[in-house]
Amino acid sequence: MPSNIVELGKQAQRAAYQLGQLETAQKNSILKSMAQALNEKSAEILDANQKDLENTEKLATNFVDRLTLTKERIKAIAEGLNQVAQLPDPIGNVDKAWVNAAGLSIAKRRVPLGVIGIIYEARPNVTVDAAALCFKSSNAVILRGGKEALHSNLKLAEILRAVLKDNGLDANAIQIIEDTSHETAARFMELTGYLDVLIPRGSARLIKAVVNKAKVPVIETGAGNCHVYVDADSDKKMAADIVVNAKCQRPAVCNAMEKLLLHKDVADEYLPYIAEKLKPYHVELRGDKKAQQILGAAIKPATEEDWYTEYNDYILAIKIVDSVDDAIEHINKYNTKHSETIVTNNYQRSEQFLDRIDAAAVYVNASTRFTDGFEYGFGAEIGISTQKLHARGPMGLEELTTTKYVVRGQGQIRK
Amino acid sequence: MPSNIVELGKQAQRAAYQLGQLETAQKNSILKSMAQALNEKSAEILDANQKDLENTEKLATNFVDRLTLTKERIKAIAEGLNQVAQLPDPIGNVDKAWVNAAGLSIAKRRVPLGVIGIIYEARPNVTVDAAALCFKSSNAVILRGGKEALHSNLKLAEILRAVLKDNGLDANAIQIIEDTSHETAARFMELTGYLDVLIPRGSARLIKAVVNKAKVPVIETGAGNCHVYVDADSDKKMAADIVVNAKCQRPAVCNAMEKLLLHKDVADEYLPYIAEKLKPYHVELRGDKKAQQILGAAIKPATEEDWYTEYNDYILAIKIVDSVDDAIEHINKYNTKHSETIVTNNYQRSEQFLDRIDAAAVYVNASTRFTDGFEYGFGAEIGISTQKLHARGPMGLEELTTTKYVVRGQGQIRK
Known about the structure:
- The structure is a homodimer of 415-residue chains.
- Chain A is α/β, with parallel strands linked by helices.
- Chain A folds into two domains: 5-220 and 391-408, Aldehyde Dehydrogenase, Chain A, domain 1, CATH 3.40.605.10; 226-370, Aldehyde Dehydrogenase, Chain A, domain 2 (3-Layer(aba) Sandwich).
- The first copy, chain A, contains 15 helices and 16 strands.
- In chain A, the strands form four sheets. A seven-stranded parallel beta sheet of chain A has the order 10-9-11-8-7-12-13, with helices on both faces. In chain A, strands 5-4-3-6 form a four-stranded parallel beta sheet, sandwiched between helices.
- In chain A, β9, α12 and β10 form a beta-alpha-beta unit.
- In chain A, α2 (24-40) packs across α7 (150-166) and α5 (71-86) runs parallel beside α6.
- At the A-B interface, α10, α15, β13 and β16 of A face α10, α15, β13 and β16 of B.
- β13 of chain A pairs parallel with β16 of chain B.
């Protein structure tokens, strides 16, 4: 693959045109062949991964863990390809169709976006996962992964590209940027006219950098300062179960809860109960004055900055509020518009919360952790959009498509 | 209204929150009151417009014409408000709803974008038109019109804002940028965190400038290098009717045809016939060598640049092609992805054209001029998107909305 980024863009566009003409059965068969190839060549993949794993002494344990491949992990990655093969293909679906006043038959048809760029960190599984979702939705993809995973990524792409070639297709449907310098990344983010969309996947810092620097259209993903508001009229056990699940089941992810808002009428009773349930997880509690009065030494003071912070850790900030209005106002001020929950038995307040909270997903009596492409039943997820244009919330295959109007006439001209 | 652009953004956000809670009937009633107010105050509007019309001696006639208001034109603008009142309200509509594996009831609900920025030229009617569509879709709007129309725009906005105020609403749902300097326009385009989307309306030059400079999300509209391909198996009269309509009915607009591709087997017969039909419109013809051989002195040579150019004028470039494949290849190379037509009686070639052309709208046997929100039956149009993200083709009220997932549970937590 050439190091010239514009050349990669041109190659991707040519491949994208071919992908747009593929039939679903052909795409599915190729995805299954890719899965098989990954399993067959797992020894080669592990060799490449081993090269990446040398010189990682200075890196954090969880970083190295995400970078590490095993035979079992390769098997799981390959199984992911088989699952993508089984998903419904959005391409060609018609969202709406009607006949206009002039008698034209108009259909709004789903078509590929074209060329998708993905910028991600040192997780080799993202290479295969993103390539599979782009391929299934008939998009060419240009992947720019973290430099620490380069050997693994190149080997994985080599295997996928060989399958494309064996099937008579343009291997440039899947390309890796080999030059992992910041200069090349910057040029990638400015590849106007070639990249139809750029999707960053990874840490908040990576996403923010891409959003700030990119000149091509970006879909912002990931940041989640998620709240659970527990209403006065609510079930104490349900509230605690949801808080523990939303906070502790997987605290590092974007749909984990970061803030607990508690109605003042139940704070004295609920807060010690919830704190007790959180104890086994060693959650650090921070709170406003009222929460401190209730929990005493078991809670630290929260600063103004806390209300803005996505901890991605076993930390929870707690605020006692006077009403659902206060809760809504606080959430709309501090949230990242990701996922917000109310725990209540009151009909009016549940509706107020659902109507007035500005977020990709709003919940009554459920954990924020459900904001996820798999949990929503999309069978896949390329990320969770926290922006309002094009896609909002979990993005599956359909979010990797656009539409075109297909119009059939009998000689109509405009009056 | 303050001249500080960030302050305008803050005010718009506050107003947007209120707009999100309005009921449809209330919005419609206010739109009708706005229409009435414009008619009642037409003398004041004409006075303000007169100020704009002073010192326009150096401006082109058609520019001054677009800037000029008359009592009749004000009546038509007011009637537009009544029409927007009659359109269906997209807010609250549910695109899809289902129950997931965990038993959560998930609905994808249409909600406002929030704050919309519009940058446009010296057409006072756009002020009212854009304000009405944003208000009906519960979005706050910040309008930045051409400096030549400032007096008219301020007076129109004053009248609309007074109606909002009389109805107990925040007048800042509709704001005008009074400072029409380039510096302020630049700061407007960088109003990240306040503007949810910026839509430029006007000339290709204006749109290009906004797309290049903006840091907020932009919806690109308007550029249309549209083609009509006439197949070997086609109806000669239908082909000529479509060409004349697409080229001459309103040549200055983006969905007008700019290029004619003609199959070689019918070129000798069709081209003189079509040229004859174009004669009454004094269309300047430019063509490739084969077209020149057929028409002789009646056609000028076309340059490479011609194939890229959107004339927006009585000029047509003509190319003779060998096949539908050649036509598709040429169009996908040179088009602006707006609107493309094939004239054919052949089923296979019609399907190939519809499938393989990359454009917002593709037609069989119809004029490209139909790409329009009103013609498509949307009842309104804020512009025609030529980009692939969020909206593609004519944008009506629904394209001014986003979605949120509204999820109702009974205490579900994630396993």
